[in-house]
């Protein structure tokens, strides 16, 4: 929700310091459950000198203009016409293809698009993919809860046959059926990034014998290289055209975007009063620009990174316990020191650090910033410095009433879908750390030539490690280090994801 600004820069600094110290004393970390993750004291800011200068920052009109300037035409356009396939849609398919997808919203999204491509390769009828229960967010939302199924089927009708449910003869082929024993119709051995030939050799015979094949697990199981052009374009057609969110998600997303672009009212503390509807007055009010920040600083991310986030011994112990519980102590890159990890760009940016990055790039305290994230590790204490730097920061709770959010409450996939929708309608998207949401946004916004800022993690790690750096030098280094990281089109290389780098496979010059 929005906060009123203080009367002067000095007062702002005092408020910042007071609020941070107060939260340090009284606010516990957010956690999954008391039995899984111990509460620890909130951390103090790690870059207080930079924070003080950032609060006092003066952004020139030229810098404001530069940061909000849309991307120029880069000479590429979407190109996913799959009519170039060598053969038309066959009258009879080889059988039904089922896939079971784990992970969060964006990992599942990529798996859905891979399933569309695989159905084409195998000449199979795709059954609407089954989304596994997310073990981290405990979300059981189905494909039909998230995506417009009829739209999905209609967009792909000339490419592959898609059915919502299996016919009665195959109704036995359920997730429960495959979880109880080894089944001849289940493919469990698909390697990561398997080739088209692997599926033709190993899955086609099962389709021919049984009329159905179920692949579990399937996430990341289809190669990005050595594929025909029409298959690559079909993947992009599925991702960028066929996958449309259900109406209530689009409606809520439109409302949030409208309230960010036409901010008539201001919400009161405690969420009692929410911003008014503004549709009827849009023609009379200047359109505001806004940026979306995907914070990606949840407990899972923090624990898996093996980095130190300034919370002291208590925080380190809590993270160690969580790592032991979830991964039995196995943590990526845990053999490196914190300094080594940061110099390599392998530590997620804290809310404090991403706030300093945005301030250095030219976002001022009048910036309308939409926060897209799940529960932040450390709660309000962890994001207090970010909120002081950007007092007009909003999220779903500050922009929409409880009644408006009732259909997505407690459903991580649906909340992520709303954030995805708002992100695609923003002027600028920034992700604090690489991940599936980052990758999905980079690809989708590249496809539409929209500005997307990619933090230079290695540079920032080195800058933040330098405790003597002043604001002027920090700002210069940040601006220079991000000059070519704001949405400039990059070609996909071998082994890279088509969904992150859609050019040249799914884009044409012209």
Automatic annotation (TrEMBL):
Recorded hits in InterPro entries, A to Z, give: FucosylTrfase_pln, GDP-Fuc_O-FucTrfase, GT106_glycosyltransferase
The molecular function terms in GO held by this entry are: glycosyltransferase activity
Keyword set for this entry?
Answer: Carbohydrate metabolism, Fucose metabolism, Glycoprotein, Glycosyltransferase, Membrane, Signal, Transferase, Transmembrane, Transmembrane helix
In the UniProt record, the signal sequence range is 1-32
- Give a yes or no for keyword Protein transport in this entry: no
- Annotated GO CC locations: membrane
Transmembrane among the record's keywords?
A: yes
Write out the annotated subcellular location: Membrane
Report which superkingdom the organism of origin falls in.
Answer: Eukaryota
GO BP terms, alphabetized: fucose metabolic process
Annotated membrane topology: Single-pass membrane protein
What pathway does this protein act in?
Answer: Glycan metabolism
Extract the CDD domains matched here: O-FucT_plant
The primary location reported for this protein is membrane
Family of this protein: Belongs to the glycosyltransferase GT106 family.
Record's protein name: O-fucosyltransferase family protein
Q: Which organism is it from?
A: Heracleum sosnowskyi
Q: What is the lineage of its organism?
A: Eukaryota, Viridiplantae, Streptophyta, Embryophyta, Tracheophyta
């Amino acid at each position: 929700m929005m906060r009123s600004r203080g009367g002067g820069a000095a007062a702002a600094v005092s408020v910042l310091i007071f609020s941070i110290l107060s939260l340090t004393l009284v606010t516990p970390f957010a956690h999954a459950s008391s039995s899984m993750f111990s509460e620890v004291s909130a951390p103090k800011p790690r870059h207080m000198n930079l924070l003080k200068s950032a609060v006092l920052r003066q952004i020139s009109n030229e810098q404001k203009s530069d940061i909000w300037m849309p991307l120029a035409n880069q000479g590429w356009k979407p190109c996913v016409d799959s009519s170039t396939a060598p053969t038309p849609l066959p009258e009879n398919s080889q059988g039904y293809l089922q896939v079971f997808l784990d992970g969060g919203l964006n990992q599942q999204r990529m798996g859905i698009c891979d399933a569309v491509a695989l159905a084409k390769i195998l000449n199979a009828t795709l059954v609407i993919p089954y989304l596994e229960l997310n073990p981290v967010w405990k979300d059981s939302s189905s494909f039909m809860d998230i995506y417009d199924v009829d739209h999905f089927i209609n967009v792909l009708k000339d490419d592959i046959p898609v059915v919502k449910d299996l016919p009665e003869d195959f109704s036995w082929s359920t997730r429960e059926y495959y979880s109880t024993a080894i089944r001849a119709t289940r493919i469990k051995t698909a390697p990561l990034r398997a080739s088209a030939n692997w599926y033709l050799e190993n899955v086609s015979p099962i389709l021919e014998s049984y009329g159905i094949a179920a692949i579990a697990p399937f996430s990341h199981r289809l190669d990005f290289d050595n594929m025909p052009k029409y298959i690559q374009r079909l993947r992009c057609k599925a991702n960028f055209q066929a996958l449309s969110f259900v109406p209530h998600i689009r409606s809520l997303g439109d409302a949030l975007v409208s309230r960010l672009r036409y901010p008539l009212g201001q919400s009161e503390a405690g969420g009692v009063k929410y911003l008014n509807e503004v549709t009827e007055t849009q023609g009379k009010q200047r359109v505001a620009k806004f940026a979306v920040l995907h914070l990606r600083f949840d407990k899972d991310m923090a624990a898996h990174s093996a980095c130190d986030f300034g919370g002291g011994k208590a925080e380190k112990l809590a993270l160690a316990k969580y790592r032991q519980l979830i991964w039995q102590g196995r943590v990526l890159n845990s053999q490196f020191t914190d300094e080594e990890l940061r110099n390599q760009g392998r530590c997620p940016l804290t809310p404090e650090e991403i706030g300093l990055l945005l301030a250095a790039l030219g976002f001022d305290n009048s910036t309308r910033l939409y926060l897209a994230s799940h529960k932040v590790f450390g709660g309000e204490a962890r994001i207090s410095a970010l909120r002081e730097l950007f007092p007009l920061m909003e999220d779903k709770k500050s922009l929409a009433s409880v009644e408006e959010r009732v259909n997505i409450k407690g459903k991580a996939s649906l909340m992520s879908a709303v954030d995805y929708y708002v992100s695609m309608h923003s002027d600028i998207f920034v992700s604090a750390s690489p991940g599936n949401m980052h990758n999905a946004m980079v690809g989708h916004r590249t496809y539409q030539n929209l500005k997307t800022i990619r933090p230079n993690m290695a540079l920032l790690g080195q800058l933040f490690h330098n405790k003597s750096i002043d604001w002027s030098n920090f700002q210069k280094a940040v601006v220079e280090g991000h000059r070519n990281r704001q949405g400039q089109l990059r070609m996909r290389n071998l082994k890279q994801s088509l969904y992150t780098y859609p050019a040249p496979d799914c884009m044409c010059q012209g």
